[in-house]
Known about the structure:
With 330 residues, the protein is an alpha/beta fold. It has 2 domains: 226 residues, Aldolase class I (TIM Barrel, Alpha-Beta Barrel); 53 residues, no CATH class. The protein is built from 14 helices and 11 strands. The protein has an 8-stranded parallel sheet with strand order 1-9-8-6-5-4-3-2. Bound molecules: nicotinamide-adenine-dinucleotide. Nicotinamide-adenine-dinucleotide (NAD) binds next to strand 3, helix 12 and helix 13.
Amino acid sequence: MVFNTELTRQLGIKVPVIQGGMQWVGYAELASAVSNAGGLGILTALTQPTPEDLRKEIRKCRTMTKNPFGVNITLLPTMNAPPYGEYAQVCIDEGIKVVETAGNSPGPVIKLLKSAGIIILHKCTTIRHAQSAVKLGVDFLSIDGFECAGHVGESDITNFILLSRARQSLKVPFIASGGFADGQGMAAALALGAEGINMGTRFMCTAEAPIHQNIKKTIVDASEHDTELVLRRWKNTSRLYKNKVVEEAVKIEKSSQSGKFEEVAPYVSGKRGREVFINGDKDFGVWTAGQVIGLIYDIPTCEQLMRRIENEAIEAIERSRKYYQPQSKL
Ligand code: NAD
């Protein structure tokens, strides 16, 4: 075993890399591939229309990997409120060992999951939220910098500051999320005090990600300038791939007199975004992407990606040693 961190030890994984929850992407195909490659794959609960569908997806994933995998439960504003407690209960019933939680007022869900001994990895974009989560008894924090895809929070603090603030002030181990696509990034995260990294956009662009090939090619062609922030007006800021629909949504957000979310809702609808991954039309609806999209230049298998990340991280750590020559004892 090369990497030995609090994350690898507690989760029973080989590489300190987690595939973050991604709406319409976190199916068994991807989660099992990541887990088979030594990381922790994650099924996205709300991607399954009902808790019973999540149960089926967990069972399917079990047939595809013998390694541990987790489930993401995100509690953010939605157009149709999901039965979060029922999704959590399915995780308990099906013997899931790790749940990634994210979003607002996660207390009741975390309490239910903790009562069953599930390891909670809670995602947050500020130290204040991280400290509240610590009080709820979470086991790990996933510190999500402003570079990240999807819900970036309202504080706009990038990971260079956020991770060091986490190291200085949190008494619970944390991983770094947002802005990671390679082993150099992982080495930097470990240097800043993290026990591992979380990657989303990078895993969307792997052979096993169950999304249309055109979208993977779009990711390869994109630069770090190709994301856009929407929904700030409603304090639900989301970083998305900058396409025609997002530009329309931003225009309405800025110009709307009423300030009603309903005006922008048809543009940012998740149902429409889901179609993008099925039909391969990058402009059909909105889809999340992090600034890390500018670092992605190929479509490897999860196995190839994870071995490369390990090698790059080891090389980066070795290289940094060259800059330090211990004084020889006289
Ligand atoms: P949806 O179609 O219900 O909503 C689309 C977008 O509008 C989402 O960003 C949502 O947060 C936002 N939204 C909905 N109602 C809102 C309101 N009243 N005010 C402000 N913003 C509002 O969402 P979906 O695509 O079906 O996704 C379901 C849930 O999962 C959403 O909360 C979404 O944000 C969240 N999500 C989860 C992940 C994940 O990794 N688990 C990734 C992306 C989004």
